[in-house]
Amino acid sequence: MDQQGRHAGSIETPASWVVACVALAVLSVSYGAPLVTVVALKPIAAEFGTDRAAPALAVSLTYIGSGMGGIVMGWIAGRVGMRPVAIVCGLMITLGLVLASYGGLYQLYASNLLLIGLLGGAGMFSPMLAYVTRWFDRRRGSAIALVSSGQYVAGAGWPLLLQIGVDEFGWRQTMRIYAVIIAVTIPALAAVFLRRPPELAAHPAATAGALAVTPVSGIPPNLVQALLAGAIFCCCVTMSIPLAHMVAFCSDIGIGPRPGAAMLSLQLAAGVIAQQIWGWVADRLGGLRTILFASASMAVAMTGFLLTQNEIGLFSVSAVFGLAFGGLIPGYILAIREIFPAGEASWRIPLVMFPGALGMAAGGWMAGLIYDGWGYYAPAFAAGILFNLVNLVLVGTLVPRHRPPRSVLAAV
To answer: Could you tell me if 37 and 59 are in contact, meaning their C-beta atoms sit under 8 angstroms apart?
Structure first.
């Protein structure tokens, strides 16, 4: 190891982990924005005189906008750098929250789709992950797991605080307060820490191990991309149902909204812990196998929501659910880097994340529609399990045909 803390032939230094931690902080703050609407689902519906599917659609539009814009933002970040993209997108999220807090239902939709999603969150997740992968080669899976857990850190930390804000000040004032939090954190962090990543071409030895790619045998690259897109859509439909409706579900069955918010936080806190474990697993087994094992675990956990409405039981199932889904996003990002050339990462990663955003949008909205039609959530959880099984079929098609690259960790 040299004086800068870099292993021989590696691009990783202590600065790599500083950048990863800052990226984690940025995502943890930015992903709290749509959680205001998630926590205030019932009050917003009551104020506007609508079913729950109406405010749930606003959250879904955020995911759609983020996914659509992520492809373009990834392309822009690859050319102008991550710093200006993060600063501008953070300010757009701020503006979106402020405008949504002063309007009606359609202004809530427009703000979530265009500002919080398309021009805001779009520059946070996929482009940020693609950016961070350019700082790592030896422990890329672990770094991806750390950074991608930002959305779960947000979910673990913000719902209880936001629920208090909604109870004390109302959902509109809570949105404005959160807008100020974003405005004073994300631009400052981006301006100070998000600089140009090390160039992989300057370290040819680093490309010999973990940076090598191994295409899926017998399947054209673009078809592999399409199968991964279908797989992430299906698993995100499943994932989004408890995340979007846990508070309302617990309120319906007599447990109450605050325990429901605590369960939501538990799911995402468990996801944070699990992602670090899954990242370690992914560095050794590869991205596709990580997806397969995590998805199978999530299907088992989802079944638990059909089997209990006891408060202690639901807390237990929530913890298992969070531990299960924690491996999915790191698995997909690492799979893209293992299967496709590094130069394609800036657009292939957002391209595979976009169907995931659509899945998160579709799952939350679908569960709201199912609830409005049936009057309870069991059919929605059953639909989520069905989508999970389709995901297992798609990923299971790719796993036998792909041999992950030899881990650098095994060679040092």
So the answer is: yes
What is the CB neighbour count within 10 angstroms for residue 272? Answer: 24
The full set of domains in the chain, from first to last, is 14-407 (1.20.1250.20)
Six-digit token string for 92: 């757009």
Cβ atoms within 10 Å, residue 223: 12
**Tokens 């913000």 belong to residue:** 158
Distance CA 150, CA 406 (A): 28
Please, are residues 348 and 336 in contact by the beta-carbon 8 Å criterion? yes
Question: Residue 282's pLDDT is what?
Answer: 85
Distances (CA, A) of 183 to 18, 91, 162, 380: 21, 6, 17, 36
d(CA 112, CA 34): 8
Enter the tokens of residue 358. Answer: 């659509």
Token pair for 29: 């703050």
CA atoms of 10 and 281, how far apart (whole Å): 20
| Cβ–Cβ < 8 Å for 241, 367 | yes
SS3 content of the chain, % helix, strand, coil (to 5): 80, 0, 20
- pLDDT means per 10 residues, the chain with 412 residues, are 55 90 95 90 90 84 84 86 94 96 93 94 89 85 86 80 92 96 96 82 44 77 93 93 82 79 82 84 87 92 84 86 86 89 81 85 85 82 92 93 62 37
* CB distance 385 to 303 below 8 Å: yes
- Cα–Cα distance for residue pair 268/313, rounded to 1 Å: 17
Q: What's the pLDDT score for residue 226?
A: 94
| 275 closest CA partner among 152, 92, 179, 186 | 152
